[in-house]
Amino acid sequence: MRRALLVLVPLALLALGCWWWIETRFPVRTASQPAQTLIVEPGQGALEIGASLRTLGLVRHPQIFRLHVLSRGDGGRLRTGEYSLEGELSLDQIVDKLVHGEVVRHVITFPEGKDLEEMAQIAAAGGVDATAFRTAAKDIALIRDLDPEAKDL
């Protein structure tokens, strides 16, 4: 019995290690699939992000995503934002994108003289949520370091 355990335990650990390596290093999707958008909201944890990735078909198991993030020490380092996930991405590459904050950048130009509502409409046409734009445009905390006494933007 003891001899069987001495053989089975290392084999089980080896199989688990191989499974983990495959889950974290090999892409789930192919390069030919279209880009997918992942929105990471403030306060979302690794398990919730993993569930979103599972819905998009980018990870097989939300718990594996969570364990992988924690094993890398990146639990508190995942950044919020809108991500475009395209091509063949392994779990490691997805976590790297989220840790480095490789978010989608929306370039929008506002003609001079537009008011907040007109700018919100232009932002919406550029792919930015109009309500989120209005909220951010009214948040003076965003410029506090430039003008501590600002009352509005």
**Overall mean pLDDT score?**
87
Give the class from helix and strand content and strand pairing: mainly alpha
Tally of extended strands?
A: 2
What helical percentage do the residues reach?
40-55%
Radius of gyration over C-alpha positions, nearest whole angstrom: 22 Å
Strand content range: 5-15%
Count up the helices: 6
Strand order of the largest sheet: 1-2
Shape: elongated
Q: What would you note in describing this structure?
A:
- This protein is mainly α.
- It has 6 helices and 2 strands.
- It has helices spanning about 1-25, 45-55, 60-70, 90-100, 115-125, 130-135, and strands at about 35-40, 80-85.
- A two-stranded antiparallel ribbon has the order 1-2.
- Helix 2 packs across helix 3 and helix 5 (about 115-125) packs across helix 6.
- The longest helix has 24 residues, at about 1-25.
- The chain is elongated.
- The model has no long low-confidence stretch (mean pLDDT about 85).
Summary?
48% of the residues lie in helices and 7% in strands. It has 153 residues and is mainly alpha-helical.
